[in-house]
Amino acid sequence: MEELKKYITEKGLTYYIETYGCQMNAHESEKIAGVLDSLGYCASPEKGTADLIVFNTCCIRQHAEARLYGNLGALKEHKQNVPGSLIAVSGCVPQQPDAAQKLMRRFPFVDIAFGTNGIHKLESMLYDALICKKRVIAADNDDSIVENVPVSRSQSPSAFVNIIYGCNNFCTYCIVPYVRGRERSRQPDDIIREIDELCQNGVTEITLLGQNVNSFGSGLSCNVSFSELLKRIDTQTGVKRLRFMTSHPKDISDDLIDCYGRLKCLCEHIHLPVQSGSSRILQLMNRRYTREHYLNLIGRLKERVPDIAITTDIIVGFPGETEEDFEQTLSLVEQVKYDAAYTFAYSKRTGTKAADMDGHLDKKIVSERLARLNALVKQTMRDKNAEYIGKTVEVLVESAGKRGREEMSGRTRTAKMVSFESGSALIGQYVMVKIDKIMAHTLHGVCVDRENKS
Ligand code: 5AD
Ligand code: SF4
């Protein structure tokens, strides 16, 4: 591929990646950037002049897909403005069955379409597109795990690390299992090696990623469970803060609950999507737990770590959801007192079981329920944030705050965003901040102590 590298570097080609969707996609964009950087491309600070634009896409809700098509349409002009430029579409949208072909037909100016499993093929696709002037697709269902794909991470003390790909759960509303295929775990040694290297390069906070991290290890011959992986990371790497997402409530083991408060690096936060507070709806969703089981888990987690922050995902307006079902969701939110909740209107995804169910709700009812839920979530968030006033918390400094040099911002172990006044705190440092007020979504405070614990 020397010919390709020479072509790219001689022409001084630049790229711009636009990412849609979840953290998994954000991390995959880092891998796409890694491949492009290794080929000699330079990152372009703006889309308008880039020689290669990559849209890394999400299809979890119809809205995300519709937005993509709108933005993609606008790129037709870009090809005229920047002669010889390429347009690539990657991620979940082209990975859907037959979607890549349809997309190429609908948008004749798209040069490359590749799915979530195709990042390692990007080099040969670029060769075909740039040198052979061909349009290329790579969106097959190849489930193998490819290690050692280069990753270009933003200069940050925090990094994402994949531990498991795919999902076997088939929640009836969800398109992900059809897109990302069956569960497959990385080898624990590969994960430890990656974390170790990151720590040596100054990273101190790791977020482990997977659609269902709790299934980690099933199918591996070495028999390492998710909680065992956490223990290994705690003892064998220098990581200071460890997070993970996403967890499925049906798979939270006693051993995992036991890790909280016991493993020094494990942060006091769990993202535990509940989806609905009604056991009847949970059954229709094929979530395989009840409201009572979920509340019992929350109770046990809070018993173990009283200050644990709990965040969730909730879907409103699943087919057949009655006012009573919805009120059960409201009462569950009141009971759990979430630190944050990501709330979604149910979106019909073709090919899922729920799409063919009876009882699809009127849009007006769904948006009215969503507004009621959001108002309640806002209140519980505010109440939880208010508990921090007067407390001194450890913050990992991530960036300059909105008010320039005088203000910095970062997160607590409980994942609360904190902005604070301190002209001299450095990104990557751990500082102690005394919280003095709460804003809509964040906390504000004053730096009282700076320690370089990294
Ligand atoms: N409609 C609305 N929300 C959905 N999610 C997944 N599929 C759908 C859908 N069809 C939400 C779930 C999940 C989060 C990532 O997206 O709450 O936890
Ligand atoms: Fe979708 Fe359910 Fe799998 Fe999450 S666990 S990715 S909601 S099918």
Walk me through this protein's architecture.
The protein is an alpha/beta fold and 454 residues long. The chain has 3 domains: 137 residues, Methylthiotransferase, N-terminal domain (Rossmann fold, 3-Layer(aba) Sandwich); 229 residues, pyruvate-formate lyase- activating enzyme (Alpha-Beta Horseshoe); 60 residues, OB fold (Dihydrolipoamide Acetyltransferase, E2P) (Beta Barrel), CATH 2.40.50. It contains 15 helices and 19 strands. The site of iron/sulfur cluster has 10 residues, from helix 8.
CATH hierarchy class name of the largest domain: Alpha Beta
Number of strands: 19
Q: In the CATH hierarchy, what is the superfamily of the largest domain?
A: tm_1862 like domain
Distance between the termini: 40 Å
Backbone CA Rg? 23 Å
- State the strand order across the main sheet: 2-1-3-4-5-6
Q: Tell me the β content.
A: 15-25%
Domain tally? 3
CATH topology label of the largest domain: pyruvate-formate lyase- activating enzyme
Task: Round the mean pLDDT to the nearest integer and report it.
Answer: 93
Q: Name the hetero compounds present.
A: 5'-deoxyadenosine, iron/sulfur cluster
What is the count of helical runs? 15
CATH architecture of the largest domain: Alpha-Beta Horseshoe
Structural class: alpha/beta
List the helices and strands and how they pair.
Layout: H1 2-11, E1 14-19, H2 23-38, E2 42-43, E3 52-57, H3 62-73, H4 76-81, E4 86-91, H5 92-95, H6 99-106, E5 112-114, H7 122-131, E6 136-138, E7 158-162, E8 164-165, H8 176-180, E9 184-185, H9 188-200, E10 205-209, H10 226-236, E11 241-245, H11 254-259, E12 269-271, H12 279-284, H13 291-304, E13 309-316, H14 323-336, E14 340-345, H15 363-386, E15 392-400, E16 407-411, E17 417-421, E18 430-438, E19 443-451
Parallel strand pairs: 1-2, 1-3, 3-4, 4-5, 5-6, 7-10, 10-11, 12-13, 13-14, 17-19
Antiparallel strand pairs: 8-9, 15-16, 15-18, 16-17, 18-19
The chain binds 5'-deoxyadenosine and iron/sulfur cluster.
